[in-house]
Amino acid sequence: MMAACNPVPQILGEGTFGVVSLEMIDGKPYAVKKLKRGLNLDEEALQKEIKVLKTCPNHPNIVELINAWKTQDDEINIQMEYCDLGTLNDYMIVNRPDKGTVNSFMLDMARGIHHLHRNNIVHRDIKPDNILLAARPGNVPICKIADFGFARFTFSTSGVTATKSSTYYLNTGCGTPLFMAPEVDSGHYTKACDIFSLGMVFYAIHSLQTGKDGSKTFLFPVTLLTRLFKDAPQEEINCAVTTHVTNVEKANLLMSMLALASQCRPGANSVESLISAHYERW
Questions:
Q1: Which of 87, 103, 229, 236 is deepest in the core (most CB within 10 A)?
Q2: DSSP string, 102-121
Q3: CA atoms of 136 and 142, how far apart (whole Å)
């Protein structure tokens, strides 16, 4: 009698450092990152990503880290929760969901960012490709924040003194320019950068502006003068928002999140509270 074979893993994504595949482990589906160690792999950044995910308490709007290990072939594997509906980017382009679903997505993302910030974590690369969706029977899909390669703690985790200041400054320029807060370029910024990026994602799922990179179509949110938001004056940003977001309260929220002055943006708790109070009628 022939022995049963494990299904061949399905490739979910592929990059310079390795692949992400769908694998069945103990009868359940998981996404497994397989990273080859070598000159091109930033192992320090990878260890920081794993540490952030292990430290962050589980939350329904954050992709869960299940396990991480090294293989005999010197490969690093990261086992994560599998989100069966892919990225927010692809879902929005293919499905063009109604405003009720879009509002539910906004609330999910706001809850995820609030959870990170109250646990002293800044993500630094919020964008539609880093938001994954999972099906919920009888309800709209749920959004989960993923990819913590740029994430950092908002306090010192080493040295004699560990500071937990409410204004902890980061200094490494990183992220995706299309969704990046303007102050990140200066190398002196706070967790408010995530609020700007989240506002960009909210704008992108309302405007549904798209671009192409080879065969891939992606959300490409720019102002009406086709400038990146981080490089545009405030008046131009506000004009773009009010053009694509018809509800006045929602437009006001987005404009506050996209304030060029980081100190003028609301905190993640305020963003979540406002959306929670109003999303059903927005």
A1: 229
A2: HHHHHHHHHHHHHHHHHTTE
A3: 7
Q: What is the pLDDT of residues 9-59, one digit of tens each?
A: 788 877 666 788 999 999 999 999 888 776 566 777 778 788 888 889 999
Q: What is the DSSP letter of 76?
A: E
The pTM score is: 0.89
What Cα–Cα distance (Å) separates residue 22 from each residue in 9, 11, 19, 190? 6, 6, 10, 35
Domains along the chain with CATH numbers: 12-81 (3.30.200.20), 88-278 (1.10.510.10)
What CA–CA distance (Å, rounded) separates 137 from 275?
Answer: 23
CA–CA dist 153, 187 (Å, integer)? 16
Give the model confidence (pLDDT) of 131-153 as tens digits: 999 999 889 999 999 988 889 88
Which residues touch 125 (CB under 8 Å, ≥6 apart)?
A: 147, 149, 150, 151, 174, 175, 176, 179, 197
Cα gap 152→49, rounded to integer Å: 8
Active site residues: 125
Helix axes 268-278, 192-207, angle to 10 degrees: 30
Q: What is the Cα–Cα distance from 203 to 134, expressed in whole angstroms? A: 22
Q: For residue 258, which of 186, 206, 180, 190 has the smallest C-alpha distance? A: 180
Instruction: Give the pLDDT confidence of 165-205 residue by residue, as tens digits.
Output: 445 666 566 779 999 999 998 888 999 999 999 999 999 99
The pLDDT value recorded for residue 75 is 84
Strands (E), the chain: 10-14, 18-25, 28-36, 65-70, 75-81, 121-122, 131-136, 139-145, 152-153, 210-213, 216-219
